[in-house]
Design a protein that fits this description.
The protein is mostly helical. It is built from 6 helices and no strands.
Length: 111
Amino acid sequence: MTNALLDLQSSFAHHLLHDDAAIETAIAAGHGIAVPRRLGIYHHAYRARLIDALRDSFGHTLTYLGDEWFDADALAYVQAHPSTTSSLNGYGAGFAAWLLARHAHDADIGE
């Protein structure tokens, strides 16, 4: 792979994790959707996949908290703990402990 491609891939991954707009100048404009919107779609989809993974892994917690509360906490977790691998296996291993610390007043959430 060329250095330019590696740099672009690294910048794209950084955008997904941190919503960094610096990559916008490296993406070619087309005749369709504007670059910021295209990047926003990927940024949102990345987070949605991680939230879906948490929903799948923590179904009882989802039931206990309800959709809205769970999704808000899951998004906060995703923003604080982006995936560090290309696989979702094991993503969210610290979610229960994180929830317990976040909601120390309700120990049932960490269960």
